[in-house]
Design brief:
Order of helices and strands: HEEEHEHEEHEHEHEHEEHH
CATH superfamily of the largest domain: Periplasmic binding protein-like II
Radius of gyration: 23 Å
Number of domains: 2
CATH topology of the largest domain: D-Maltodextrin-Binding Protein, domain 2
Strand content: 15-25%
Shape: globular
């Protein structure tokens, strides 16, 4: 082999090695980034600065977050993964699409999610972070349908809800209640306004009333009846991205944040009720000695 050919061969080998190192470095960097979904669900996750639900950069992170959305769930997720050694980038996506994105491997983390057996096939449930009494709320045109004063009044109506969204077992699992599913909550509201459906369903009263105003749906009003149920909000981790051992580690990080007062500081900064850690509702099931902190039981 001539000297020039040897030099060319050496250069090609060096370039190939450099390329492999760069690729490995890029892959390692990508593995340090967690992809989280968000949507407007006040006060836990709230749009900022007049940002419309459909308007936001595709992915956001760092200082950009303060111009798009805020809330204790955002701060909690940021804090958890900082301790886990990973950065977080966020994508605005309707809740129903977020669960499908987890299945496809496009989203790693879903904040503020209810537990169901079906969801547990694709998501680890960390927490719960919040446990409280809540209600399913109903928005309808009373001039057309009259008021809803009891559960049975729903039997002759078509309810509208978002794809993959849960309302409570007494609603979702009731064979006498029809629920049509839509790609987003705005689409569900539009269906009620156009009379393609009769009643918009939402477990978040603040969001429901906001949508009524911003979508100019003032002909729709709240039903007197509200379906009561216990709300348990977890941090959802994709089973495609996280192994069980990692989910247990993250679950311990969350529990430690209740212990050391981090959760208290986060919620206090938003002037919101400070949640109490409810170990008995844990879905991860790691074993740990009982403590006597006021924010746990």
């Amino acid at each position: 082999m001539t000297k020039s050919l040897k030099l060319i061969s050496a250069a090609l080998v060096s370039f190939g090695v450099f390329g492999l190192i760069n690729h490995a470095s890029f892959a390692s960097s990508e593995n340090q980034v967690v992809r989280a979904a968000f949507w407007h669900y006040p006060p836990g996750i709230s749009n900022c600065c007049g940002v419309a639900e459909e308007h936001a950069p595709h992915w956001i992170s760092g200082a950009e977050l303060d111009f798009v959305f805020s809330g204790p769930w955002r701060d909690l997720v940021q804090n958890v993964f900082k301790q886990f050694g990973q950065n977080v980038k966020w994508k605005r996506i309707p809740f129903g699409e977020a669960l499908d994105a987890v299945t496809k491997g496009d989203i790693d983390v879903i904040p503020n999610v209810f537990f169901t057996e079906a969801r547990s096939q694709r998501v680890w449930f960390v927490g719960p972070v919040e446990v409280e009494d809540g209600h399913v709320n109903f928005l309808l045109n009373k001039k057309i349908h009259g008021d809803i004063t009891k559960l049975e009044d729903l039997f002759d109506l078509i309810l509208a809800n978002e794809t993959n969204s849960e309302s409570g077992p007494g609603i979702d699992d009731n064979p006498k209640i029809r629920i049509d599913r839509f790609g987003s909550r705005l689409e569900a509201l539009t269906a009620v306004k156009s009379r393609a459906a009769d009643v918009l369903v939402d477990t978040n009263l603040e969001r429901l009333l906001e949508m009524r105003v911003t979508s100019r749906a003032t002909q729709l009003t709240l039903a007197t009846y509200r379906y009561p149920f216990s709300i348990r909000n977890y941090l959802g981790l994709s089973k495609k991205r996280f192994k069980k051992a990692e989910s247990i580690k993250i679950d311990k990080i969350v529990e430690n944040m209740f212990d050391d007062g981090t959760v208290k500081l986060i919620y206090k900064s938003y002037e919101l009720k400070i949640p109490t850690y409810k170990r008995k509702f844990s879905r991860i099931g790691h074993v740990r000695k009982t403590t006597h902190m006021s924010t746990k039981d």
